[in-house]
Amino acid sequence: MIPQELLYAKSHEWLKVEGENGTIGITHFAQEQLGDLTFIELPSVGDVLEAGDEFGSIESVKAASEVYMPVACEVTEVNESLEDAPEKANDDPYGEGWLIKVKITGPTDDLLDAAAYQAVTEEDAH
Amino acid sequence: MKTVFKKSVPGREGVWPEKPKSKIEDFIPADMLRESSGMPSLSELDVVRHFTKLSMKNFGVDSNFYPLGSCTMKYNPKFTEQVAALPGFARLHPVISQLKGAGRHCQGALEVVFETERMLSELCGMADFTMHPMAGAHGELTGVMLIAAYHRDKGNKKTKIICPDSAHGTNPASAAIAGYDVVSVESHDGIITPEALAEVLDDEVAAVMMTCPNTLGLFETHLPEIVKMIHEKDALLYYDGANMNAIMGKMRVGDAGFDVVHLNLHKTLATPHGGGGPGSGPVGVCEKLTPFLPISRVKKLEDGQYYLDYDAPKSIGYVAPFYGNFGVYLKAYAYMLRLGREGLTRATENAVLSANYMRKRLEDDYEIPYNRICMHEFVASAVKQAKNGVRALDVAKALLDKGHHAPTIYFPQIVKECMMFEPTETESKETLDQFLDDMIEIARLSDSDPDFIKNAPTTLSVSRLDETKAARDMVITDDIE
Known about the structure:
The complex is a heterodimer.
Chain A (H helix, E strand, L loop, with lengths): L6 E2 L4 E6 L2 E6 L1 H7 L2 E5 L6 E2 L4 E7 L3 E5 L4 E6 L9 H4 L8 E5 L9 H11 L2
Chain B lengths: L43 H14 L21 H6 L2 H4 L16 H18 L3 E3 L5 H19 L5 E5 L5 H8 L3 E5 L8 H7 L4 E6 L12 H10 L3 E6 L11 H4 L3 E4 L1 H4 L14 E3 L11 E4 L5 E4 L16 H37 L15 E4 L1 H4 L5 H10 L6 E2 L8 E4 L7 H20 L1 H5 L12 H6 L9
Helix pairs in contact in B: 4-11, 5-6, 11-14
């Protein structure tokens, strides 16, 4: 369930890099831990954020959690369809459930590859 | 069930001991009369049946075991209700004490305020207390405002408040509402370490808000070193009294070095709980914070007379109308008098004993992530059951079928499939054993017949509710057919 081509943050966000453009979402593991999502709050287009910054919050039937920027970037697009259908991030976290698109402005060296992230989820599951 | 308004039949009314002789029109000018009060028209029997049926739908500690962790749903003895209903208290108008020369008509009530503050100060080892805050979170806000007033008075520039991840959920909210930036500190093996605190503790920190024991039911064993570190930065240490049930009569938070404390009387000292109030969240302070306490203060003259004192130039001012929820803390006063020093200490001992008894009996069937001596509550996890698809939510629902209230689930968030149990001191061993037998049976069924647990509850008036749909498609209505 962990796509090989993406980069990952320990806080369970994924980043898809296409040149200087990126797409960010939460991982399958994250949505599974959170349970059914009920509300997703996202930043505004044009927001400039540093790696590690909080960029939104996700509420599920269990809890409210923050999501953190995997990389320094400027927000270019947000997935507005999540407002009415937050369940997309449950059903298809790597596809239709993406959260934001960004212009990447910082390094991605600290992010994990699929194998390293797999290890994080195994650790976290205990 | 129809609402009392839907049951209304025009013209129907209850029994009048005597019909009023005058008409309302004789007293109220015609242009100020309302055509309808909006009140339902019902017979006395309609009303009795309506509210009796409503009460039967309710699930409370008066009818069932209620081990909702972090909430301290203990049984409140009924004599406190009798005390609060005494006409001398119940019919006293709060403004009496403020009228010139009328203080002598409410000396008893003023004495209750004064003495309750003294008793709580003794219980917590603080210099003084204010009874004004109307609930726990109001107490937190008042406490943080006192901290801000102290730093402002000293000319300190402090912008941050540290809240551990194991602290009570309202702490960061209270600090933020008071205008502080909230900094989180991670717990290690369930508690705060001096090393983790050192990473975030700097000169800009105004206070650290701690819950001890914390929400995992664990005592903060590094407390002495943590207190020293915080005071060296001229920061203050705040004690969230949510878990006071675990230390009453055993440790005084003032002696331990805490500067501000709020208590939840509805948790610890037997006042009504839930339903949004009326609550009471008195705040205690150390000596150097007393000038900032809210006004008014009840003071005692040499001749034994009590009066309201407003002469406090450094006070943060009013935080509540009058003196807080007097009728509520009157019950706490009665409870403390009845139990005394020994009784309150025994309440704590029994609360801690009950929690540890439950923890030990559950440890073979459920994962206990911090399986060591706990205080008045403990955290278990449904991770073993989750392998069969049975999650904490399902265990909680299955408990409803057995006639128990569910534990707190998915909090604190640092434990996966978390279930938090707090039995309190008021439950008998028979009640605990019945609950534990049922918990163990649910664990076994989770192995042999997981679908049965996943479909619980099956014996209640409604089956499994769709909590996701309820949160996603909110429909607010007064129609509760």
